[in-house]
Amino acid sequence: MNIAFTYNVRHYDVLKNGKKAEEEAEFDSPKTIRDIKKNLESLGHKVFMVEADKNAYLKFKKLKPKIDLVFNYAEGIYGRDREAQIPAILEMLQIPYTGGSPLSYAIGLNKVKTKEILDYHGILTPKWQVFKTGKEKISKELKFPLLVKPQAEGSSKGIFSRNLVKNKHELRKITREEIKKYKQPALVEEFLPGREFTAAVLGTPPEVLPIIEVKFDELPKGMPKFDHYEAKWLYDNPKFKVDPLVCPAKISKKLEKEIKEAVLKAFEVLGMVDWARFDIRLDRRGRPSILEVNCPSGIMPDPAENSRFPRAARVAGLNFPQLLQAVIDSAQKRYNLK
Q1: pTM value > 0.70
Q2: Domain containing residue 23: CATH number
Q3: Domain range spanning residue 131?
């Protein structure tokens, strides 16, 4: 096929350029982008590269007669609904693409809207409250410790280890700082004490790949045990040779069934298609509770990067090119493309 591969690329190293790197946390390194292109080409596809910048619409308009499908790996630029930008452009131009619609991707990036929909459909998610100023009265339903997150950021951006707060003073301080820095409301949710997992969903009809447990045993003493920015980008780094992932997760058949049922239902009600990945944590009763959805999910080809979706795919018997082809096949089936 003739495939347009659309993406956003990172320009700064996480370990060398902390502040600037955090701004591009959702983007991928130039090497990752090059490697994905090579893997698409290894499948026999002709690949057209389209960076998802301000000129993306004109690029796609010019390319439309030449391409069959767009492999959408773009995060978008600017705004709380930025992940909807490329799907909206492609809908306007009537070009088939992988992944969810503009609405589903906008909702997926917005942690609050995601939780509202999950809650409405009876899918467990931690109790939460939205803070727009940081001065709001704290809900009596919330019990400390609490976790503070920006409403619409991905890749653990803005979720640092210090964001796990233990009292009202810490909560006020962190929420105000987050609101000011990220220029958006802060989501405050109960911190669940149980194990943490991530589950990748792939295909049409969708199937759950082997579930991954995320472990935090290698974090420094005293550092909170959850998937914060430091854990994901600093300690889980090839330079440290740490592997926090266990796949397949060592869990009971009952828990595996509960997680799969929850993520497949969430995949449906959020309007996801082709692929997405869900982060899950167990509550005090050992029940799986969905934290958020990742769409599009990060897919770094190098196994040393511990990229979660490719790890689950490998355990399922799919190498990296086969994973890419599975996403393409799913979109082809939805669009009825030959």
Answers
A1: yes
A2: 3.40.50.20
A3: 127-190
